[in-house]
Automatic annotation (TrEMBL):
Record-given protein name: P-type Ca(2+) transporter
GO biological process: calcium ion transmembrane transport; intracellular calcium ion homeostasis
Source organism phylogeny: Eukaryota, Viridiplantae, Streptophyta, Embryophyta, Tracheophyta
Record-linked SUPFAM superfamilies: Calcium ATPase, transduction domain A (SSF81653), Calcium ATPase, transmembrane domain M (SSF81665), HAD-like (SSF56784), Metal cation-transporting ATPase, ATP-binding domain N (SSF81660)
Subcellular location: Membrane
Top-level EC class as recorded in UniProt: translocase
C-alpha cells in the first residue's frame, strides 16, 4: 500500500487548525516541531476518533506523516521520541494533550446504512421492479374496474395484494441479511483488552480502562493479560516473555519477545520487541511503551481492511445471471406488450379517412383498460414470482446437507458460489494441517553405546486414542523409555481437555503433544494403574508420573539456553533434575547417555555425531525436535523442598544461573513433532515440508519461483502473471494486506476465490473473497463473522465435500430455473396467442399468480433433491460466466412454451367450438357451440341477429344467458377458462419430469429417482383440486369444477409435452459434440 509521507519540517499551521479546542499552552506544545511526539502525528491522527475525515484544511488532501519505527530503535531512543520516562510514565497534563490528539484507544464504529436506504436497496433488482410495476397497475385497475374479467369485489384485489406481500417478505429477508453482515467489526472489538496497569506521574495505576491509553503510556503486562495496544517492550520482569499472537499473525506457536531492536523493514512476525493489541501473554511479565492506539494499531488496520472489503462485496455468480435474465426479460416483456397493443389497437381505437386523412377518432376506455389488463397479465405471466422463494428454499436445504458434513453456511448465496470455485486460498495452520502438534517419531538409546532405536507414532490430534506407536513394547517399557515418558509428562505445563467431541490443548501445543505421547506410551510394568491424579480426560499415565515424581521447582524456558527444567522429589528417594529443550543445546550440556537397561555411559563423539545426524534427518522432514535429559540435582539442592527460606532458593530467582544448574546432564533421547497435514488433504506423503507432503508441490520439484514471502510477492512487477502459474503457489509470512491483495488480484483475473482462515489476520481476505471459509474450532470470532461458511471440524476435506454439494445444488437450481422459466414462456405464449387471435381472455392474472407461486413451487423445490452426478468432483469447475440458459436450452423451452400456449388456448377454443375431441364427449354440460369466426369476433356479439345460447351446468351451478346472450363470452367463459388453467397446471407437472435431467431421457432417469418430485406433483395437483372443488376458492379464482370427461381432455392435451421434450433431448444428445467445444480448465490451488 502506498502512503504519501512528509517530514515534520513541512508541516504548516493549517494542519494544526484541525485540532480545535486546545488551550494556548497545548497549542504551543503542538507547535514545537522538535517535540518527539509531534513528529509522528498525521492529520488523520489530529482529528482523533470520530473526527471528520472529510475535513481538510484549505481543501488540501489529508497528509500522512512518517511513523516512528519503535521496533528498530533501542529503549532510550523510544523514551526520547515519546517524551516519557519508563520509571515515571506520562504526566496528567501530557495525557490530556495526547487524548486531544489521538482520541480514545478503541476501534471506530462505522456509520450504519439507514433503514430507508436498506429498504430502497431491496428494490434495486430488475425482476422486483417489474413485479412492483405490475402490482401498482393491478391495484389501480382493481380500483377502476373491480368486476372486470369475472372478478367481483374484494377478489379484484387478490392479485396486487399477493404481489405486494411477496415484495414485503423479500425486503424483510434482505434487510435482515444486511443488518447481520457486519458483525465481524463488532467481534473485533470483543478481543480488545478492557483494562491495563499503567504508570503515570510515577504512580502505578491498576485497572485503568484500556480505552484511556495514549501513545507514550508505560504499561505493565503479566501472564494472562490481553495486550491493550501496540507497544514496544522496554523491559522484561521475568526471564522470558511469550505472547500468543496466532490470531493476528497466523503463527501456531507462542512467540518469545525481547527488548532488542530489530530491522526497520521487519514484518509483523519479525517484530520481536513489539506486542500487539488483542494478543495474549502466555508466559512471563514485562514493561511496555504504548506506540499506537485505536485505529493505528495492527488490529485497527485489520478493522479498516474489513470495512474496505465489505464495500467491495460483489453479487454471486447466480445473482449476476438472474440479474442479466431480469434485464433480458424486461426487454422481452416490453416488446411483447407493445406487440399485443399493436395487434389489438383496432378494438379500442378506430377512425375514418376523410380526404386521405384520419378523422372521427373513436376511443373505448373500457376496452383500452381491458387490453391494459392483458399487458399486466403478460408481466405476471413472464415473471417467475416463485423463483426467489424456491431458490431460497433450495439453498436452505443445501445448508442443512452441508451442516451434516460439518460445513455451517452463514450466508445462503455462498452455497451456490461454492459450485464454481476455481481457486482455494488456504491458510496453512489448521486447514491443511490439524493445528494440533503431534509427536510422529521417538528416538531412544540402544542397548550399547553408539546405537539408537526409533519408533514411529501414529495420530494427528490431541486425542490420546488417535493412533498407536509402531512396534511398541506395551507394558514392557525399558528404563530408557520410562525416563523419556517421565520427563515428557512432568517437565510440562500443558494439559489436554475434552470439549464436546474434540480434544483441545490448554497451554503450549508442543507440550500438550508430549502429554498425548505419554498416554500412548502407556504404563510402565508393575505400575499402579489406578492413579489418584488421573483426570476425566484420559491422561492417566501423566497423572501417574506426576504422582511418582513430585515437582518442587521450575527452571523456566528462555531463548538463550533453549530449555526448560524441573526439579522433582522422586518416589525412589532421589531428587532429580528433568530437562527438555532444543536437542543441540541439551546435548551440548550432556556428558553421559542412558542406555536401554538404565545404565549410563560417557557420551563419546561417535554417539554425539550419530544423534546429531538423526536430528538432521528428522529436521529435513519438517519435524520440530525436542531432546530429553536428566541429572541428580546439584549438591546445593540436595535438601531443597521448594521452600523460599532454603538457601539454594536464591539461585532460582536469577535465570542466568539456570544454564549452570542444567549441566552435566545424562541424555536419554528425543522426539520429532509436527503440525500434521490432514490425511484427507492429500494421500501422498513424503519426507518434505508440509506443502510437499500434502501434494501442493512434488518431492523433487524446483519451487523457487512459486514460493514467496508476502513481502517478496508485493515486490513482484507482474503479480497477476505470477498468480496465473499452473499448479500450486505458496505465500509464507503473509500479512493481512498481502492476503487481501492476493484475493483481489485473483478476482480481477476472473477467478472465483474461496479463502480459508482462522485468525484476525485472515478476516479482511475472508471478507473480500467470493466465499470466506472460517475454522469453527480454532477460528476467532472475527474470522467467523467475516466469513460466509464455518467449518465445524476445521477440516480441509469438509471444504471439498462442500464444493461438491455446491456443484450439486447449482445443477439442481439450473433444473428448476429452466423448469420455471419454460413454464412462464408457456404462459406468455398463451396470453399472446389469446390477444393475437382476438378470442376472450383465457386466464386472468390471479390464476397465473396462483400457478407461478403455489402450483409450480413444490415441483421446483423438489427438483432441488435431484441426486448428484457420481462424477461431479471429477469435472472441472464451471466458469462464472457460463450461461445459465444456453441457446439450445432456450430453443427447447421456446418450443415447449409454444406448445403450452397452443394447448391452453386450444382447449379454450375446443370447448366453445367442438362437442367432442379425440372421442371424448364434451356436450354433457349442455353448453352451446359457436363457430371459430364468432369466437374470434366475440366483441361484435351485440350486432348479431338471433344469437342465442343454452344454459350449461358446472358442478352444482347453472349458467343462464337469456337476458344477455353476449355474456356467454364473458361470464360464460368460466368453464373454458377452467380447462385452460387445468391444462396449464397439468402440462407444468409433466414438464417437471422433463427437468429431471438436462439431456437424459426419462427411460434412463425415471421419475422415481427423485421420489420427492412425485410427492410434489401430487401436492400441486391436490392444491389445484382444492381451488376447483371448494366453492369459496373457486369463486375467488373465477373457476368451476370439471367432470371426468373434461379431465380426460386435460390429460389428452397435456401429456404430449413429455414426448416433445424427449425428441428434443434426443436431438440434444446427438448434437452435443457440435455444441460444446472442449476447453482445458486452468486448475489452480493457492496456498498461504
Amino acid at each position: 500500500m502506498i502512503r504519501s509521507e512528509i517530514h515534520s519540517e513541512s508541516i504548516d499551521t493549517t494542519s494544526i487548525h484541525i485540532c480545535k479546542g486546545l488551550s494556548v499552552e497545548e497549542e504551543k506544545y503542538l507547535e514545537r516541531s522538535s517535540d518527539p511526539l509531534f513528529n509522528s502525528i498525521s492529520v488523520t491522527d489530529l482529528m482523533g476518533k470520530g473526527g471528520d475525515e472529510d475535513k481538510q484544511s484549505n481543501g488540501s488532501e489529508p497528509l500522512k506523516l512518517d511513523t516512528f519505527p519503535a521496533w528498530a530503535k533501542d529503549v532510550g531512543e523510544c523514551e526520547e521520541r515519546f517524551g516519557v520516562s519508563v520509571e515515571r510514565g506520562l504526566s496528567s497534563s501530557e495525557v490530556l494533550t495526547r487524548h486531544q490528539i489521538y482520541g480514545l484507544n478503541e476501534l471506530e464504529k462505522p456509520e450504519g446504512t439507514s433503514l430507508l436506504k436498506l429498504i430502497l436497496e431491496q428494490f434495486n433488482d430488475t425482476l422486483v421492479r417489474i413485479l412492483l410495476a405490475a402490482a401498482v397497475i393491478s391495484f389501480v385497475l382493481a380500483l377502476v374496474d373491480g368486476d372486470e374479467g369475472g372478478e367481483m369485489g374484494i377478489t379484484a384485489f387478490v392479485e396486487p395484494l399477493v404481489i405486494f406481500l411477496i415484495l414485503i417478505v423479500n425486503a424483510i429477508v434482505g434487510i435482515w441479511q444486511e443488518t447481520n453482515a457486519e458483525k465481524a467489526l463488532e467481534a473485533l472489538k470483543e478481543i480488545q483488552s478492557q483494562q491495563a496497569t499503567v504508570t503515570r506521574d510515577g504512580v502505578k495505576v491498576s485497572s485503568l480502562p484500556a480505552k484511556e491509553l495514549v501513545p507514550g503510556d508505560v504499561v505493565e503486562l503479566r501472564v494472562g493479560d490481553k495486550v491493550p495496544a501496540d507497544m514496544r517492550v522496554v523491559g522484561l520482569v521475568s526471564s522470558t516473555l511469550r505472547v500468543e499472537q496466532g490470531s493476528l499473525t497466523g503463527e501456531s506457536e507462542a512467540v518469545s519477545k525481547t527488548t532488542k531492536a530489530v530491522e526497520e523493514n521487519a514484518d509483523i512476525q519479525g517484530k520481536k520487541c513489539m506486542v500487539f493489541a488483542g494478543t495474549t501473554v502466555v508466559n512471563g511479565s514485562c514493561v511496555c511503551l504504548v506506540t499506537h492506539t485505536g485505529m493505528s494499531t495492527e488490529i485497527g488496520r485489520v478493522h479498516s481492511q474489513i470495512q474496505e472489503a465489505a464495500q467491495h462485496e460483489e453479487d454471486t455468480p447466480l445473482k449476476k445471471k438472474l440479474n442479466e435474465f431480469g434485464e433480458a426479460l424486461t426487454l422481452i416483456i416490453g416488446l411483447i406488450c407493445a406487440l399485443v397493443w399493436l395487434i389489438n389497437v383496432k378494438y379500442f381505437l378506430s377512425w375514418e379517412y376523410v380526404d386521405g386523412w384520419p378523422r372521427n377518432f373513436k376511443f373505448s376506455f373500457e376496452k383500452c383498460t381491458y387490453y391494459f389488463e392483458i399487458a399486466v397479465a403478460l408481466a405476471v405471466a413472464a415473471i417467475p414470482e416463485g423463483l426467489p422463494a424456491v431458490i431460497t428454499t433450495c439453498l436452505a436445504l443445501g445448508t442443512r446437507k452441508m451442516a451434516q458434513k460439518n460445513a455451517l453456511v452463514r450466508k445462503l448465496p455462498s452455497v451456490e458460489t461454492l459450485g464454481c470455485t476455481t481457486v482455494i486460498c488456504s491458510d496453512k495452520t489448521g486447514t491443511l494441517t490439524t493445528n494440533q502438534m503431534a509427536v510422529s517419531k521417538i528416538v531412544a538409546m540402544g542397548s550399547r553405546i553408539g546405537t539408537l532405536r526409533s519408533f514411529n507414532v501414529e495420530g494427528t490430534s490431541f486425542d490420546p486414542r488417535d493412533g498407536e506407536i509402531d512396534d511398541w513394547p506395551v507394558g514392557r517399557m525399558d528404563k530408557n523409555l520410562q525416563m523419556i515418558a517421565k520427563i515428557a509428562a512432568v517437565c510440562n505445563d500443558a494439559s489436554v481437555e475434552q470439549s464436546e467431541n474434540q480434544f483441545v490443548a490448554r497451554g503450549m501445543p508442543t507440550e500438550a503433544a508430549l502429554k498425548v505421547l505419554v498416554e500412548k506410551m502407556g504404563f510402565p510394568e508393575g505400575a499402579n494403574k489406578a492413579s489418584s491424579l488421573a483426570d476425566g480426560n484420559g491422561l492417566r499415565c501423566c497423572g501417574l508420573w506426576s504422582e511418582l515424581e513430585h515437582r518442587i521447582a521450575t527452571l523456566e524456558f528462555d531463548r538463550d539456553r533453549k530449555s526448560m527444567g524441573v526439579m522433582v522429589d522422586s518416589s525412589s528417594g532421589r531428587k532429580l533434575l528433568l530437562v527438555k529443550g532444543a536437542v543441540e543445546n541439551v546435548l551440548e550440556r550432556s556428558t553421559h547417555i542412558q542406555l536401554l537397561d538404565g545404565s549410563t555411559q560417557e557420551l563419546d563423539q561417535y554417539s554425539r555425531d550419530l544423534i546429531l545426524q538423526s536430528l538432521h534427518d528428522m529436521s529435513m522432514s519438517a519435524l520440530r525436535c525436542l531432546g530429553f535429559a536428566y541429572s541428580d540435582v546439584p549438591s546445593d539442592f540436595a535438601t531443597y523442598d521448594g521452600s523460599e527460606d532454603h538457601p539454594a532458593h536464591q539461585q532460582l530467582l536469577n535465570p542466568s544461573n539456570y544454564s549452570s544448574i542444567e549441566s552435566n546432564l545424562t541424555f536419554v533421547g528425543f522426539v520429532g513433532l509436527r503440525d500434521p497435514p490432514r490425511k484427507e488433504v492429500h494421500n501422498k506423503s513424503t519426507a518434505e515440508a508440509i506443502c510437499r507432503e500434502i501434494g501442493v508441490f512434488e518431492a523433487d520439484e524446483d519451487i523457487s519461483s512459486r514460493s514467496l514471502t508476502g513481502k517478496e510477492f508485493m515486490d513482484v512487477k507482474d503479480q497477476k502473471n505470477h498468480l496465473r502459474q499452473s499448479g500450486g503457489l505458496l505465500f509464507s509470512r503473509a500479512e493481512p494486506k498481502h492476503k487481501q491483495e492476493i484475493v483481489r488480484l485473483l478476482k480481477e483475473d476472473g477467478e472465483v476465490v474461496a479463502m480459508t482462515g482462522d485468525g484476525v489476520n485472515d478476516a479482511p481476505a475472508l471478507k473480500l473473497a467470493d466465499i470466506g471459509v472460517a475454522m469453527g474450532i480454532s477460528g476467532t470470532e472475527v474470522a467467523k463473522e467475516a466469513s460466509d461458511m464455518v467449518l465445524a471440524d476445521d477440516n480441509f476435506s469438509t471444504i471439498v465435500a462442500a464444493v461438491g454439494e455446491g456443484r450439486s445444488i447449482y445443477n439442481n437450481m439450473k433444473a428448476f430455473i429452466r423448469y420455471m422459466i419454460s413454464s412462464n414462456i408457456g404462459e406468455v405464449a398463451s396470453i399472446f396467442l389469446t390477444a393475437a387471435l382476438g378470442i376472450p381472455e383465457g386466464m386472468i392474472p390471479v390464476q397465473l399468480l396462483w400457478v407461478n407461486l403455489v402450483t409450480d413451487g413444490p415441483p421446483a423445490t423438489a427438483l432441488g433433491f435431484n441426486p448428484p452426478d457420481k462424477d461431479i468432483m471429477k469435472k472441472p469447475p464451471r466458469r462464472s460466466d457460463d450461461s445459465l440458459i444456453t441457446a439450445w436450452i432456450l430453443f427447447r423451452y421456446l418450443v415447449i412454451g409454444m406448445y403450452v400456449g397452443v394447448a391452453t388456448v386450444g382447449v379454450f377454443i375446443i370447448w366453445y367450438t367442438h362437442s367432442s375431441f379425440m372421442g371424448i364427449d364434451l356436450s354433457q354440460d349442455g353448453h352451446s357451440l359457436v363457430s371459430y369466426s364468432q369466437l374470434a369476433h366475440w366483441d361484435q356479439c351485440s350486432s348479431w341477429e338471433g344469437f342465442k345460447v343454452s344454459p350449461f351446468t358446472a358442478g352444482s351451478q347453472t349458467f343462464s344467458f337469456e337476458s344477455n346472450p353476449c355474456e356467454y363470452f364473458h361470464q360464460g367463459k368460466i368453464k373454458a377458462s377452467t380447462l385452460s388453467l387445468s391444462v396449464l397446471v397439468a402440462i407444468e407437472m409433466f414438464n417437471s419430469l422433463n427437468a429431471l435431467s438436462e439431456d437424459g431421457s426419462l427411460v434412463t432417469m425415471p421419475p422415481w429417482v427423485n421420489p420427492w418430485l412425485l410427492l410434489a406433483m401430487a401436492v400441486s395437483f391436490g392444491l389445484h383440486f382444492v381451488i376447483l372443488y371448494v366453492p369459496f376458492l373457486a369463486q375467488v379464482f373465477g373457476i368451476v369444477p370439471l367432470s371426468l370427461n373434461e379431465w380426460l381432455l386435460v390429460l389428452a392435451v397435456s401429456l404430449p409435452v413429455i414426448l416433445i421434450d424427449e425428441v428434443l433431448k434426443f436431438v440434444g444428445r446427438c448434437t452435443s459434440g457440435y455444441r460444446y467445444s472442449p476447453r482445458t480448465p486452468s486448475e489452480k490451488k493457492k496456498t498461504e
